[in-house]
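Researcher: Please translate sequence to structure tokens.
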Amino acid sequence: MEVTHLWVAIAAGAFAAVVALVAADRLRRRRDEAQAYLKGVRSIVSGDSDAAIEALSDAARLGSPEAVETYLALGALFRRDGDLSRAVRLHRNMLLGPGLEPVRRTEVELELAEDYRRSGMLAEAAEIYERLAPVSPTAAAGLREVRIEQGDLGAAAAIQRGLGGNGPDPILAHLLAAAARAALPADPARAAALAQEGLAACPASADAALALAEAEGAAGRVAEALRAVERALDQDPRSAALAWPSLLAVPDRAAACALVAGRVLDRPEDAWLQLLQARALHRAGRDPEALVAARRAMELDRTGEVTLAMRELLREADTPAPEDLAARHEILVAALLRRGRAPRCGRCGADAPARSWRCRRCGAHDPYP
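Model: Translation complete:
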């Protein structure tokens, strides 16, 4: 009987020792993963993507219960660095692995769909988003972005109507403004109606106001077009950077010059307004004044973005008159010598060749400061 008790005690002790060893090993693995993860985060902050990928990979291979989080962080880093094929492989492999909880599976599927969208695999992204959209607003928003990139602005607007609340909806206004511009060549009246609908969705939308100005200008309604440009500049002074197509649509060149001149008087330190004035004056045949405004735009440029836009403008400009050649050459040299800077998305950090209302990489609207 004593022998039996002895063996029971030995077995219990051995079991306790095994439990302690397993717990200690689990604690060590979690500690090691935490240290590797922290190293990865520090590398991300310092901008060393290669070191971050190595550290996060080490953390993920430890296989602790928190490994899903680490894999997701690693996939996001791959995508941020543009290594989309590795992001796709990682998220596919996660879905193939055993034991992935349903909530985490949905999260991984959404990450994979975003990988597909960024890679241009729009049909694959849409298949995932469509399946998840009824239960996931994130998936519905992803499907909206896919429809935008497929050129189906009507479907994108319909999705956004389902996502929007009762208040102003700036995203819907952007979508309707884009639809207005798409309709403009064939049907200016339809374009104007879509732009007005955009303003109804969000009265403060500078994008919708500028789309309306383009439609009114194409229809020859000068006063209405100028009012719409004024409205955009009132709602968002940054819209001066994107107002040229609307101003170009105004058939009365003198009236367009007068509008910008009044704005410059109100905000003489605005480099984008000075550049807008230079373009309007050049279109009106007032090249000496246009060159003065262009030079002033360069002087006021604090970020380098106006300089970059100036380079493109000068590259595409017609050959100047002989009397303007020296001044044009001076501005061109100044634009080349100054440091230009591409606009950078405030959400994903991607550079763009020029400003737009939407970041082509991450889909954010109003992405530039």
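Researcher: Any highlights?
Model: The mean pLDDT is 82.
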